[in-house]
Amino acid sequence: MKEIGEFKPKQNLDSSKTIKAFENAKNDVKGPEHINTINQDKEGTVYNGVLYEKRVIRVNGRKIEGVFPQFESKFDAYLPKKMWHSSDTEQFKYCVNNLRNAIDGNPDLAKEFTPRQLEQIRNGEPRISGKTWHHNEVPGKM
Questions:
Q1: Is 79 left (phi over 0), alpha (psi -120 to 50) or beta?
Q2: Residues with Cβ < 8 Å from 79, sequence gap 6 or more?
Q3: What is d(CA 16, CA 102) in angstroms, rounded to the nearest whole number?
Q4: Residue 12: which residues within 8 A CB-CB, separation 6 or more?
Q5: Average pLDDT for runs of 10 along the chain of length 142
Q6: Domain, as residue range, for 103
Q7: 142 with 77, same domain?
Q8: Is 53 strand, coil or helix?
Q9: Best CA proximity match to 111, nearest among 75, 61, 81, 140
Q10: Is residue 37 included in any domain, yes or no?
Q11: How many other CB atoms are there within 10 angstroms of residue 79's CB atom?
């Protein structure tokens, strides 16, 4: 038999970190918070060629559930958090700049667009004929 020493807890335990870890684990166990969306009545249907599905996403550590359109995207852009509340025009300009850079780095991407659309992209126009920037349910994703 081996003698063991007496257990002495560490004096500098950071209880706030322990509590935070527990709260995060607890949030993973409970179900998502449901949010009402303008398209919730379209769940499971295709409307104007777009499928509407219930999805669960994580926003600031919280699980959120809602019905969202599932668009086929030609290009995804991600806004920095500081731009989440900017005007649509400012957000679209940022996205078009990202798209222009992506086309410069991958000329095959240009095949997805008409000559007129490519001109608008090169000029940095926030709105591209026949296309739209969709605010995705994932914060910052366009």
A1: beta
A2: 86, 91, 94, 95, 140, 141, 142
A3: 43
A4: none
A5: 53 63 64 87 92 89 89 92 96 98 96 97 96 90 94
A6: 72-142
A7: yes
A8: strand
A9: 75
A10: yes
A11: 20
